[in-house]
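Bumping my old thread because nobody answered last time. Still need a sequence for this structure:
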């Protein structure tokens, strides 16, 4: 009767296990990095639209210049913060998010101020840009969710046993998820007093 030589089978099996872990971890990690690139792409679309929105609003002769200046400045700051997907850290993501939050606040102020200008609100270009911005904000949220899902898949893969043993040996570290701004769990205080200037 032929016997199986298990001593030669075990190293081959270990190699297959390590190869499978590594390839799957690389795939999940790259998917998470691509998802982050999609988050940045969605924010870039928003920045591009804001530039067009500001130009349209500037056509209103008596529009508040300080509000426009604030939006332009926040947009410049937001576009200056970029993160390489291979070096996603909590600090990098917080810096990116802080710049985006500044732009979101300035944009909100602009859209509230527009309420005082009926001619501008009736402008077809402005209405179309406003609609595209709303769609882009939804796209940004969707891309952040997809990024977190990709990171979750990757992190689960490298943290499950026996993969957790191999993760350290192959240099795979956990990735950080996109987090909401502190205080964003509280509803904003909205004030529609348009008599103030």
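Sorry it took so long. Here it is:
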């Amino acid at each position: 009767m032929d016997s199986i030589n298990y001593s030669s089978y075990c190293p081959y099996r270990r190699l297959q296990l390590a190869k499978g872990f590594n390839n799957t971890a690389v795939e999940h990690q790259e998917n998470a990095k691509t998802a982050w690139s999609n988050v940045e792409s969605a924010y870039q679309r928003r920045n591009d639209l804001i530039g067009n929105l500001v130009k349209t609003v500037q056509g209103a002769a008596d529009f508040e210049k300080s509000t426009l200046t604030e939006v332009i400045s926040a947009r410049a700051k937001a576009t200056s913060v970029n993160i390489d997907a291979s070096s996603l850290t909590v600090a990098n993501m917080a810096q990116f998010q802080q710049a985006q939050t500044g732009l979101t606040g300035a944009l909100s102020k602009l859209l509230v101020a527009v309420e005082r200008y009926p001619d501008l609100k009736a402008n077809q270009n402005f209405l179309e840009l406003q609609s595209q911005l709303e769609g882009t904000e939804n796209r940004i949220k969707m891309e952040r969710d997809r990024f977190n899902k990709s990171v979750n898949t990757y992190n689960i893969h490298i943290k499950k046993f026996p993969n957790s043993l191999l993760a350290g040996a192959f240099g795979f570290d956990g990735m950080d998820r996109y987090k909401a701004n502190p205080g964003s769990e509280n509803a904003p205080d909205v004030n529609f007093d348009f008599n103030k200037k």
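The chain has one domain: 16-170. Let me know if any region looks off to you.
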